[in-house]
Design goal:
Blueprint (H helix, E strand, L loop, with lengths): L5 E2 L13 E2 L3 E6 L2 E5 L8 E9 L7 E6 L6 E3 L11 E8 L5 E3 L4 E2 L7 E8 L2 E7 L6 E10 L2 E8 L6 E4 L10 E8 L12 E2 L3 E6 L4 E6 L9 E10 L5 E6 L5 E4 L7 E10 L5 E3 L3 E4 L10 E7 L5 E6 L6 E10 L5 E6 L8 E6 L9 E9 L4 E3 L3 E2 L3 E5 L5 E5 L7 E12 L4 E8 L4 E4 L1 H4 L5 E13 L5 E7 L3 E4 L3 E3 L16 E3 L4 E9 L5 E5 L22 E8 L4 E4 L1
Parallel strand pairs: 2-9
Antiparallel strand pairs: 1-9, 3-4, 4-7, 5-6, 5-8, 8-10, 11-12, 12-15, 13-14, 13-16, 16-17, 18-19, 19-22, 20-21, 20-23, 23-24, 23-25, 26-27, 27-30, 28-29, 28-31, 31-32, 31-33, 34-35, 35-38, 36-37, 36-39, 39-40, 39-41, 42-43, 44-45, 44-46, 46-47
């Protein structure tokens, strides 16, 4: 404890600031009821004595305990001072024959050991530990003893002086391997030390683990202990690729973990935690932990841009994906109309990934109904990325009894927004392939009547191509073209026989007027007289009966019956009479 008393001898007309001072001895400490000091030189006049004052109350009143007349004496024993374990307070003055001088008192000390200092913070600085404390309230403190916990035992690592020092750098610490724990004792000139401060403080030891799948750095640390005001919060400091650390976030003081998200592959990250003391003054930094992010690149931009039939009746899926995605499996799913999706194909990716790739589906039912496809990839974190769906355009055809070819198709459907879609209907026959119609997206049927006009156009094939623009989720748009299955139609032969003919007139041959003659594979025309006798048989549709009987004579005018039997190129049988 510290208290100074001032005895003044005032001379009228002389201000206090002009007077000399009588300095007390330097009161060092009290050890085993013995007061110890160092003499002080006072040249103003001859030495008379040292006077020792004491009290059991720091605020007094103080009484004279004794005097020491030997100027070289440096101690005084207080007899029976601790007989009742009393606490005593002392101060010293020097008595010199210096009339009119100001007499200064020494520090006021007690007979107790010095108080330990209050620890402010234990903070990591690089590979060392910084200790901060508030000096002891005991004026007899002459130095501080620094203790560090080594294998469970507190070992003194250094003694620092003077007593005003409140900082220490422990360069022998190893804060990057674990938390370092400390306490500080006060020491006086007599060798007395403060009691052991059990409210030890330890550095924050942080560990960081990068999760390549979640792209996070998982930070964990020990909670800072023994701040009277508690922890106001934790400040997360981050440095990226060697840049100056910047505050990233502040989290509650009772939280000892944090997930830093969205690590970028190949970037270097360094993290530090600052515990903020509740008094708003002090803080304690953790060790710095650095890691190089190696994350599994997800297949985020993954979509189907086209599902289209090829010339040889395969289905071609054109898709885009991220070329740096770290995937290990690709799976194609197909779904027939009204059924559930099933796995169609599975294959490993071929590296390096092409930004636009294709897959040919050979096992499908696309010729009988529309089929929906989508794709999935699996990466090394078992994360599944799925595309949009794409549905084939299913084209069907019917030929009516007039030979008109009625085509209809299912709409273009890709699971994304679309714009500027049009349909182009292609027709292919023996000689050429042409676009016979361009239709808007609301038109899903068309009748081809040109076949009837062209009597030799008995067989043609058709397909639809949908052409448009897909609007992707990333606000980009792409051109796409999807082709339907191909359908073919062979028109059946159309035969029209006259109801009369005149061998010697204008209509001299009884034969049919034909459409789509090329569709005839076999032809049999039979003529019968009124008694059912067969009088003519022909196998060439371009030839006919000229009214000649089997005996070579001209048939008489009368009623005759014909029967025709045609087998078409696609195996159908047509009979007419």
């Amino acid at each position: 404890m510290k208290l100074r008393f001032l005895f003044l001898s005032i001379l009228l007309g002389i201000t206090l600031g002009l007077k000399s001072q009588i300095l007390p001895p330097e009161f060092l400490c009290v050890e085993n009821d013995t007061l110890n000091w160092t003499p002080t030189l006072n040249p103003c006049g001859p030495f008379q004595s040292y006077t020792v004052y004491f009290s059991n109350d720091i605020n007094g009143p103080y009484s004279v305990l004794g005097t020491v007349t030997d100027p070289t004496e440096t101690s005084f024993y207080h007899q029976n001072a601790n007989s009742a374990n009393n606490q005593w307070f002392y101060y010293l003055v020097s008595e010199h024959n210096c009339p009119g001088q100001v007499q200064i008192t020494s520090d006021t000390l007690d007979n107790r050991d010095p108080e330990f200092p209050e620890m402010d913070a234990v903070s990591v600085s690089g590979n060392a530990i910084e200790l901060f404390w508030t000096p002891s309230v005991s004026p007899e403190t002459s130095a501080y003893i620094i203790f560090r916990n080594v294998n469970g035992n507190f070992i003194p690592i250094d003694t620092v002086a003077p007593e005003t020092v409140s900082y220490y750098l422990d360069s022998a610490a190893n804060p990057n391997q674990g938390s370092e724990e400390y306490t500080i004792l006060s020491l006086d000139e007599c060798g007395n030390t403060s009691i052991f401060n059990t409210a030890t403080q330890a550095s924050i030891f942080m560990e960081a683990t990068a999760n390549p799948c979640t792209r996070t750095a998982e930070l964990v640390w020990n909670e800072y202990q023994n701040w009277q005001e508690g922890i106001a919060g934790h400040e997360i400091m981050v440095s990226i690729d060697g840049a100056t650390p910047q505050p990233f976030d502040t989290i509650p003081g009772n939280q000892t973990s944090f997930n830093y998200e969205n690590l970028e592959d190949g970037f270097d990250y360094c993290f530090t935690i600052n515990a903020l003391r509740g008094n708003g003054i002090h803080s304690a930094a953790s060790n710095e932990v650095c890691l190089s992010a190696s994350v599994i690149r997800p297949n985020n931009d993954f979509f189907v841009r086209s599902v289209s039939f090829t010339e040889d009746d395969q289905i071609e899926i054109i898709y885009e994906w991220e070329t740096d995605a770290e995937i290990n499996n690709v799976e194609i799913f197909s779904q027939d109309e009204g059924a559930s999706a099933v796995s169609n194909s599975t294959f490993p990716p071929a590296f390096p990934l092409s930004p636009i790739d294709t897959f040919l589906v050979t096992n499908h039912n696309g010729n009988t109904n529309p089929v929906t496809f989508y794709m999935e990839t699996t990466d090394d974190c078992d994360t599944i990325s799925r595309t949009n769906y794409g549905t084939t355009i299913h084209l069907s055809i019917q030929v009516d009894d007039q030979g008109f070819r009625n085509l209809s198709w299912t709409p273009f459907d890709f699971g994304y927004g679309r714009e500027q879609v049009e349909y182009r209907l292609y027709k292919r026959n023996i000689s050429q392939e042409t676009v016979i119609a361009q239709l808007d997206e609301n038109t899903l049927e068309y009748t081809d009547s040109t076949a009837v006009e062209n009597l030799f156009d008995f067989e043609s094939c058709y397909y639809i191509a949908a052409i448009g623009i897909l609007d992707l989720p990333d606000d980009n748009s792409i051109y796409t073209r999807s082709r339907s299955n191909t359908v073919c139609a062979a028109s059946e032969p159309l035969l029209h026989f006259p109801n009369a003919f005149a061998p010697n007139g204008k209509n001299t041959v009884f034969k049919p007027a034909l459409a789509f003659q090329n569709a005839i594979a076999e032809y049999d025309l039979a003529i019968y007289d009124r008694w059912g006798k067969r009088i003519y048989n022909g196998s060439d549709p371009s030839d006919g009966w000229r009214g000649i009987l089997p005996n070579g004579k001209q048939a008489q005018q009368g009623v005759y019956v014909y029967k025709v039997r045609v087998i078409t190129t696609d195996g159908n049988t047509i009979e007419q009479s």
